[in-house]
Structures are given as C-alpha cells and as structure tokens.
Design a protein that fits this description.
10 helices, 25% helix, Naphthalene 1,2-dioxygenase Alpha Subunit, Chain A, domain 1, globular, 18 strands, 4-stranded antiparallel β-sheet, alpha+beta, 8-stranded antiparallel β-sheet
Length: 427
C-alpha cells in the first residue's frame, strides 16, 4: 500500500478543499485506554454522543409498503419506523403509552391495518395515533388524541433512514453528507431494494462481541491492516486502496479491483462476473467504496449492490455489530451471482475484523499498554478520535477522571445542552 500524498474529494477526484494529509509532527496517539473500559465514561458517551447524533437505522426499502415496520434499539431507547396507509414514513418510540411495553417485537415485520400492543391490547393506527385502548369503558373520559405514539426525529437521505433521539450538534443529514451526494446519485441509492429474497444468505445479520464499541470502529477506520489481516481483500484490491479523510467525521475508503490476476475462487469469479456499469463515473466502476458516517456506521457500495453496517454499543465491554444488504432494481442473474460472491468475500473480512477488534480491546486493560503509535496510513483513526474530543471532555487525560468529575461536567452541560438530560444510566 502506498503512502497517501493527498486527500481526494470522492465527487470529482480533485484535491478536497477541506481534506487533510497527516501534518508534519502530528500527534500519533489515540484515545487513552481507560475510555474503553470505564462504565462512567460509557454513560457519558451514551448521553452526549449516541443519543444526540444521527443514527443510521436502515433504508426505505426495508419499509416499502403500508404497514411495514422496522425497529432500531440503542442504549435504552427503542425506535419504531412505520410506513403509514398514506405512504408516509414516520418514526416513533417503540413504547406503548399505557405502560411502556414494546408495541412491536422483533427487527422487522408488517401489519395489515393497525399495531396491537401485546401486553394489554391497545391499538394504534399506522400513523401512530391511538385507535383505542382495550376495555375503553375502564377509562373515565380518556382523550385518545393525547396518547398517540411519541415521535422521534427522522430524516431520509438518498433512501437511507437516520434517527436522532435528542437534539444534537450535527446539522441536517442532507447538509452534513452533501460531499457524498454525487456518488449516491450515481449509484441510484434511493432506489435500492432489500436483498433478502428466498433463501438468500445475504439477509440482515448481527453478531455480539465482548469489546467496547470504539475498538470495532478503530479497526474499520484504517486500511493499514488490509495487506496483513485480509488476504481476500488484498488479493481483490492489490495496492490500489486509499483512505480519504473529510470534515464532519466523514471518511471514504476506496478499493479498486481488476489490476492483478486473482488466485482464489471467490475473487477470480467475482471479477469475472461483476457486470459493467457504464452509467457510473469511471472512479466508481470496478471499485468497492465505503462511506464512513460518524460515530458508528458505514454505507458501502460495490458495482452490484450495497450494504450498511455499524456497531451498536450494549455495555462498556459488549457491542453488537449489525449489517443489512441491498440490491439494485432489475438485477440480472449475473449481477446477483457477483453480489453473492462480493458478500462472501466481505463475510470473511468481517470475521477477521471482529477478531482484530477483540485483540485490540483486550490490550486496553493491560498494564503494559502505553498508547497507540499511529502510522500515516492510520490517520483516519486519529480523525475519528478528534471528533470525539471535540464533543466530550477529559480525553487528554492519561488516567480516568473520578466519577464526581464526570457528573460535575454533565451537570454543567445540562444548563446549555438540555439534550443530555436522560433517564438512569444503562449498566
């Protein structure tokens, strides 16, 4: 892999005006190890990061028809994305207004005409309004209009669904991700379809790892490890791989294939079957492109399909890694075969990354761990850490602050950032 000499704009391949190459003498350290295993710090991340930033929940293809629903859970909050009879997409807290039970249970599903709470049978219309409680005669003059499902802020961009549980510092999604607009338009991202047909093994997936979420993101934010740790990707890309850093917590990784004769069955047949895409600009043809979205998600495209993946923190030392796969409309048999092979290569890569995340996370609790010493090829890791430093305090400390200090910061922040108010910490 060659040392990067400049950061390129993904849209026009000219030097990006905001892009950064590693400056001379840049600080090669990462976040201090205690931030990966402090429960008190994890609660601060919950309140000040995950619940106040845009979370990538899915694609409109996942809720294509009236009555289709999709859930998204993170750190004590439960979201329900629902397609109404009027065709509108809405997001609500997945929380019955009676006693707080889940209105729907599961990752994804559909209902014919209404949602029925499985606890006591309250019935909600597909626009979130309350149709009626069970045994309405047991409520004295209940105003049903006051008991609809509580809405959650939602924005849809190029078909991708973003949720935010509390107001936060990021701008509207369309403004924030505008650097990706031309690429996503070229791909026709808004018209993607689910890739879950029949016995397709590319259905939504998840796995749980005994690691802090940042250990997963650290691995994914650099390609320095690809030649050593990912033989399949290395064979596919060769040395034609590049990590690009943009502002706003965004990053792009591009791997171009077809430059060297492949040896393994999956890569050889993938390159043979991957269909030409003349509608794509040259830079996106014969390329796998990953679009990083701060703080915890990626949208990835190949010439024959797309996927989203990311990490959902569960506790300070456990993380659920999830992914969903999509295809282009009017997919040919050849394109489907290529998409399957691409995901086969990617599945092996994901397994390899998960093991790297475990090893990395273990080191954070070791007395021998001094700090990161990052390569220029790992500048994306530093950029992600700097985004966290801009939001949360104490990240220049070598040792963990006392819980009282964290509480004091949170109390002061509440005066100017009311979105940090939350219920009890998740253990």
């Amino acid at each position: 892999m060659n040392r990067p000499t400049q950061v390129l704009h993904a849209v026009d391949q000219s030097p990006h005006p905001e892009g950064l190459t590693p400056p001379t003498g840049w600080d090669r350290r990462g976040l201090p190890g205690w931030t990966y295993h402090s429960p008190d710090w994890f609660d601060l991340e919950r309140r000040g990061l995950f619940l106040t930033h845009w979370m990538l929940a899915g694609h409109v293809a996942d809720v294509a028809s009236a009555g289709d629903w999709l859930t998204y859970d993170i750190l004590g909050e439960r979201a329900l994305i629902l397609r109404g009879r009027d065709g509108a997409l809405r997001a609500f807290h997945n929380l019955c207004r009676h006693r707080g039970a889940r209105v729907v249970d599961g990752v994804q599903g559909t209902c014919r005409s209404a949602l029925v709470c499985p606890f006591h049978g309250w019935v909600y219309n597909l626009d979130g309004t309350l149709r009626g409680p069970a045994r309405p005669d047991s409520y004295d003059g209940m105003d049903r209009s006051a008991f609809g499902l509580k809405p959650i802020e939602m924005q849809v961009w190029h078909g991708f669904i973003f949720l935010r549980f509390h107001p936060g510092p990021q701008p509207d999604v369309a403004d924030w991700l505008s650097a990706y607009d031309a690429d996503f338009t070229a791909y026709g991202a808004a018209g993607l379809e689910e890739a879950t047909e029949g016995k397709d093994r590319l259905a939504p997936w998840s796995s749980e790892l005994p690691v802090n979420w940042k250990s997963v993101r650290d691995v994914d934010n650099e390609g320095y490890h690809v030649p050593m740790a990912h033989p399949g990707l290395q064979e596919l890309y060769g040395d034609d791989y590049q990590d690009l850093s943009l502002e706003g917590g965004l990053n792009i990784s591009v791997g171009r294939f077809g430059g060297t004769p492949p040896r393994t069955w999956s890569v050889r047949n993938y390159e043979r079957l991957s269909p030409p895409q003349p509608h794509l600009p040259h830079r996106l043809q014969r390329a796998w492109t990953y679009y990083g979205i701060f703080p915890n998600a990626v949208i990835a495209f190949t010439p024959e399909g797309a996927q989203i993946y990311g990490e959902t923190p569960l506790t300070v030392r456990s993380t659920r890694v999830t992914g969903r796969n999509y295809r282009f409309a009017d997919e040919s048999r050849q394109a489907r075969a290529a998409r399957y092979l691409a995901m086969r290569i990617d599945r092996e890569t994901s397994k390899e990354d998960q093991q790297l995340s475990i090893w990395s996370d273990e080191s954070m609790a070791s007395s021998a761990f001094d700090d990161f010493h990052l390569s220029d090829l790992e500048y994306g890791v530093r950029r992600h850490h700097d985004e966290l430093r801009a939001i949360l305090p104490f990240l220049d400390r070598a040792t963990a602050p006392a819980a009282a200090e964290l509480d004091q910061w949170a109390e002061k922040a509440l005066l100017t950032r009311p979105e940090l108010r939350s219920n009890q910490p998740v253990p």
